[in-house]
Amino acid sequence: MQVGLTLSLKNKEGRLKLSLLDHGCYVGDLSIKLDGGAAWLYQLLVDAFEENISSSVEEGISGKIKEGITKLDNFLQALPKQISLDETVALNVSFVGNPVLSNSSVAVAINGLFTRTSQILLPQSYKK
């Protein structure tokens, strides 16, 4: 069996966008051997439908690839762009630039800017 994927991973407005550009699955030789009393009869049916079984396996794997890429993209889209550190400060963790891919890693850069939250807090212990 051979499975191939072509993916795109890009920065889109501070979030990573994963797209499936191309994919394929090829089942070469499929071998199903049955044992038992009437196995010879069932083996004839399996042999007769070998091509149908192979194409069903290929379609099933292709569907799972699409489903997995969609789930992974949804996860990447759900990553926060800002992380609150306390009541007054947040860290901007949105992605800047496109990721750099290598054989064993994915390098990403984040904004890293500390920002003030929209809340203005007054000390509660202050007395007039």
In short:
GO terms for molecular function: lipid binding. With 128 residues, the chain is α+β, with helices and mostly antiparallel strands. The protein has 2 helices and 7 strands.
Protein architecture, described:
InterPro entries: Bactericidal_perm-incr_a/b_dom, BPI/LBP_pln. One of its GO terms (molecular function) is lipid binding. This protein has 128 residues and is of the alpha+beta class. It folds into two domains: 79 residues, no CATH class; 49 residues, no CATH class. The protein has two helices and seven strands, in the order ββααβββββ. The strands form three sheets. The chain has a three-stranded antiparallel sheet, with no helix packed on it. Strands 1-2 form a two-stranded antiparallel sheet. Strand 3 and strand 4 form a beta hairpin. The chain starts with a strand and ends in a 12-residue tail after the last strand. The mean pLDDT is 88.
Task: Describe the secondary-structure layout.
Layout (H helix, E strand, L loop, with lengths): L1 E11 L2 E12 L12 H10 L1 H29 L3 E3 L4 E4 L2 E7 L4 E5 L3 E3 L12
Antiparallel strand pairs: 1-2, 3-4, 4-7, 5-6
Key features of this structure:
elongated; alpha+beta; 2 domains; 7 strands; 128 residues; two-stranded antiparallel sheet
